[in-house]
Every structure is written in C-alpha cells, then in structure tokens.
Design goal:
2 domains, mainly alpha, two-stranded parallel sheet, 6 helices, 61% helix, 2 strands
Amino acid sequence: MVQLTPEERKVALFILSLALSGIILNHLTKTCCWVAAAVYPAPQLARLNLNQVSLAQLEATKCVPAKIAQEIIFSRDLHQGFSGWEQVREIKGIGKQRFDKLQEFFLIE
C-alpha cells in the first residue's frame, strides 16, 4: 500500500469528492428535469404550436415521456386540434408541473 502524507491524503480526498459530485450531478441532470434546468438553463426558444407539433418534437422537450407524448397526439387528433389548455389539462398523466412545462414550451393556436 502506498504511504501518503497528510497533505497528499487531503488532496486525494478532495479529488475523489469532486469526481463523485460530478458523477452525481451528471446523473441528476439526466433523470430530473428541474435539476437539468437549474444546471443548464435553456435559451429562450420560439414556442411551438401544440396543434402542429410532431411526436418527435414533443419527446425532445425531455419533460414529456414518450407515453404522454402519444396521449397528447391521440387527444389532439381525437378533438381535431386543441381549442384551449383545458383540453390538454384533462389528458391522463398530465399533472400541474408537467402542465406548466407544456405551457412554457408550447402554445395553442
């Protein structure tokens, strides 16, 4: 085993803790939308019309899982387009937080 001085131990511990923090932060940004938004703020982009958006564009927001994106497209096709946000709110799987995110990224015309 390598003998380290107290100063070398401190440096090694610091480097290990820094690496572990990076791994944890990377994992959180991939799994939690709100962490990713805090770490990597998105530039203001043009909002897409929810009545014209494709399934791929919905899934690209990363806050809309594939199953819910399919439900949104199905509901939109069933109603021949959304007339207001109330119809979107009634889709199964869309809670308050996801609804707020949808309003942030999309508009209804």
